[in-house]
Design goal:
Blueprint: E1 2-3, E2 6-7, H1 10-14, E3 20-23, E4 33-34, E5 42-47, H2 53-60, E6 71-73, E7 78-81, E8 88-89, H3 101-104, E9 115-120, H4 130-147, E10 156-158, H5 177-205, H6 211-235, H7 237-242
Parallel strand pairs: 3-7, 5-9, 5-10, 6-9
Antiparallel strand pairs: 1-2, 4-8, 6-7
Length: about 250
């Protein structure tokens, strides 16, 4: 697999994709999205401000709503596929003093034409569940790989960075795009280290390396893994609070 000019072994990403995606695109009326196909350059993250996915989904099914998103991430980790990636969902069309560079660089375009929308089921100032956050990360990484979208803050933004007045809470009152990106990158690095450790063990079994060399190499990899775990924990104190299960 080639991703932005860098060769990536397909199993490295695909083996961890456990998303449950439920296709409901056929239930969303055409009044609530545009079937004008456009290449998507980024992802806009939202919260539904609802307690359950069906509240948002039923709104998307209402012909008078004039609203939709490409995906909804439920609290149990299920993902509802509402609008085809290539179509323009109506999730971020209203701009007010945008701060996101990708929006300012496209000042003459409607953000719906170049941004995919992901709605995450959560109320304002609420929290995500652990399985929900995991599903969100897998979905974002999957879409980035599928559409060649760089995993950075220019291309992954919050709704609050498009409309700094009416949507200032979305999604940052619950989670932050920085947390999503940082956690995905940390997971990638940990997976890479695990793969490398496994390869080293195989080489040792095949007598390609002497015992002392392989032991030192594995120890270094374990130290790197431990360091990434510690950094992720240290940098995400607030995220851990948000991910605590209710009553936990």
């Amino acid at each position: 697999m080639i991703y932005r000019g860098v060769a990536i072994a397909a199993p490295f990403h695909l083996e961890v994709i456990t998303m449950k995606i439920i296709d409901v695109t056929h239930t969303i009326p055409t009044q609530n999205y545009s079937n004008r196909k456009t290449e998507k350059e980024g992802i806009c993250l939202h919260i539904t401000t609802d307690f359950a996915y069906n509240q948002a989904l039923n709104w998307f099914r209402n012909k008078r709503a004039k609203a939709s998103a490409h995906y909804i991430v439920e609290r149990n980790g299920d993902i509802f596929y509402c609008v085809n990636d290539a179509n323009n969902a109506y999730h971020a069309g209203k701009k007010y003093r945008p701060t996101a560079s990708i929006v300012k660089n496209n000042s003459n375009r409607n953000p719906n034409s170049y941004l995919m929308g992901i709605e995450v089921v959560a109320v304002k100032n609420g929290h995500l569940t652990q399985v929900q956050f995991k599903a969100l990360k897998e979905l974002v990484e999957h879409l980035c790989i599928k559409h060649g979208i760089p995993l950075d803050r220019h291309h992954i933004i919050g709704h609050n960075e498009i409309n700094t007045k009416d949507k200032i809470f979305c999604p940052v009152s619950v989670y932050n795009p920085n947390e999503v990106i940082r956690s995905i990158k940390a997971d990638r690095e940990i997976k890479r280290l695990r793969v490398e450790r496994k390869e080293l063990a195989e080489r040792y079994k095949n007598s390609e390396y002497d015992q002392d060399r392989i032991i030192k190499k594995v120890r270094r990899q374990l130290q790197e893994m431990r360091r990434f775990y510690q950094e992720q924990l240290a940098e995400n104190v607030e995220l851990r609070r948000l991910l605590e299960d209710e009553g936990g």
